[in-house]
Amino acid sequence: MSVAIRVIPCLDVAAGRVVKGVNFENLRDAGDPVELARIYAEQGADELTFLDVTATVDDRSTTYDVVRKTAEQVFIPLTVGGGVRSSDDVARLLASGADKIGVNSAAIARPTLIDEIADRFGAQVIVLSLDIKRSDSVPSGFVVTTHGGRRETTLDALDWAAEAIRRGAGELLVNSIDADGTKDGFDLELIGVMRSISRVPVIASGGAGRLEHFPEAIRAGADAVLAASVFHNRELTIGQVKDELRQDGALIR
Amino acid sequence: MTAKTVVVLDYGSGNIHSAAKALERAGARVELSRDRTRVMEADGLFVPGVGAFSAVMEQLRGVRGDELIDRRLAGGRPVLGICVGMQVMFDRGVERGIDTEGLGEWPGAVEQLPAEILPHMGWNVVDAPSDSVLFDGIRDERFYFVHSNAAQQWLLPPQSPLPAPRVTWADHDGPFIAAVENGPLSATQFHPEKSGEAGLRLLRNWIASL
């Protein structure tokens, strides 16, 4: 394998603005997603992910503007997730400049959404976003949740991921609800089991706090690492994470 | 010197706005079009392509893009195909068991990579010939790939006195063709418009060659 490990910063966007604190100096406007995207790209980000946490349909149209403006200035891949309910939503986001689309709860409610998107645009545009919690209610011990982890479904994470891949998901974004926000490191066991059942790339998410957490996730089987607050709060830079990965023997751009 | 004109073939496939912006950034005057005159008159034609081989071929034929590409190449007018826009230049593509006829500019089939993890997604290195125009001044850089299928053999024999095609290879659990420069027809399996500075430099090299 000679493809590089990817480091992906994630930005929450609502009504065209970055939400959740972003503490950068020298920003004209810390809430402008386009400017932040540009800075992360300059720091060496391998992709960018926008999570649209917009509540209303009106706000949604501002997200398309953000995607368009970002894609006009930042020439690295852009994934947009949040609120994607139909293949027409995907068409609009792709036309705005997104390269990949994250799907989550809408696909849980209606799994054929994945088939529809894959048939129309190819599997490579679909990132299945998984919010996973440890639970004894399912055989693997990992259950799929919705609403940011607040609601448990009856889906075993391994079964759901396998089904989604069969239907045409091209990548898995594996977010651990248990690890998210702890800064104690990724859920390595979860990454390992998801890797073992997946032929598509796996992105590890949730729990990054220190540099050594990133190579751990790669050794556990991740193809890419995603983080938000450690980058936004300037605790770690993209460059530091890539140096750490490189020293651990990973291939890095 | 006036800027070179590039038409991005607008036939319903791919992220054409990012491609157009990247080409502009690389110095071209860019237009999105499927109009025969505009396509024929441009200094360069950029052919994007995202999705299934069969769907891309259908969309291309729907706007007679196949004829436009053929006519340009017959007249020695430069064309650059990207991703599935490269794949369709081969004889045929086999995807999910469907065997689809391509444009047939190059012999051979585009088939699924024999890799453990697919799609091949991310930044990979390439092995370009030393006389490559596209990769001139770009060494040891990575480019962004996202695909599951590729041409894995180069079958076009040398046709003296024409210059030999320059073929660039990459590897994902096995070798595949990452780029071809063959007279007026060039193509890359990766996305230069999504490959940061390295990609912009490659586009600049292509535009300078028009």
From TrEMBL, chain A:
Pfam families cross-referenced by the UniProt entry: His_biosynth
Active-site residues from the entry: D12, D131
Highest taxon listed in the record's lineage: Bacteria
Keywords: Amino-acid biosynthesis, Cytoplasm, Histidine biosynthesis, Lyase
Catalytic activity: 5-[(5-phospho-1-deoxy-D-ribulos-1-ylimino)methylamino]-1-(5-phospho-beta-D-ribosyl)imidazole-4-carboxamide + L-glutamine = D-erythro-1-(imidazol-4-yl)glycerol 3-phosphate + 5-amino-1-(5-phospho-beta-D-ribosyl)imidazole-4-carboxamide + L-glutamate + H(+)
Pathway: Amino-acid biosynthesis; L-histidine biosynthesis; L-histidine from 5-phospho-alpha-D-ribose 1-diphosphate: step 5/9
Biological-process GO terms, alphabetical: L-histidine biosynthetic process
Subcellular location as annotated: Cytoplasm
Enzyme class: lyase
An example Gene Ontology CC term for this record: cytoplasm
Enzyme Commission designation: 4.3.2.10
PANTHER family, sorted: IMIDAZOLE GLYCEROL PHOSPHATE SYNTHASE HISHF, IMIDAZOLE GLYCEROL PHOSPHATE SYNTHASE SUBUNIT HISF/H IGP SYNTHASE SUBUNIT HISF/H
Family statement drawn from the similarity comment of this UniProt entry: Belongs to the HisA/HisF family.
Purpose: IGPS catalyzes the conversion of PRFAR and glutamine to IGP, AICAR and glutamate. The HisF subunit catalyzes the cyclization activity that produces IGP and AICAR from PRFAR using the ammonia provided by the HisH subunit.
Subunit structure: Heterodimer of HisH and HisF.
HAMAP family from the UniProt entry: HisF (MF_01013)
Protein name: Imidazole glycerol phosphate synthase subunit HisF
Native organism: Agreia bicolorata
Encoding gene per record: hisF
TrEMBL record, chain B:
EC number(s) from the headed UniProt entry: 4.3.2.10, 3.5.1.2
One GO MF term: glutaminase activity
Protein name per the record: Imidazole glycerol phosphate synthase subunit HisH
Keyword list, A-Z: Amino-acid biosynthesis, Cytoplasm, Glutamine amidotransferase, Histidine biosynthesis, Hydrolase, Lyase
Active site: C83 (nucleophile), H191, E193
Keyword Lyase: yes
SUPFAM superfamilies in the cross-refs: Class I glutamine amidotransferase-like
Subunit field text: Heterodimer of HisH and HisF.
Record-level GO BP terms: L-histidine biosynthetic process
Pathway named in the protein's UniProt entry: Amino-acid biosynthesis; L-histidine biosynthesis; L-histidine from 5-phospho-alpha-D-ribose 1-diphosphate: step 5/9
GO cellular component term, pick one: cytoplasm
Domain Glutamine amidotransferase residue range list: 7-206
Subcellular localization, as worded in the UniProt entry: Cytoplasm
Catalytic activity: L-glutamine + H2O = L-glutamate + NH4(+); 5-[(5-phospho-1-deoxy-D-ribulos-1-ylimino)methylamino]-1-(5-phospho-beta-D-ribosyl)imidazole-4-carboxamide + L-glutamine = D-erythro-1-(imidazol-4-yl)glycerol 3-phosphate + 5-amino-1-(5-phospho-beta-D-ribosyl)imidazole-4-carboxamide + L-glutamate + H(+)
Lineage: Bacteria, Bacillati, Actinomycetota, Actinomycetes, Micrococcales
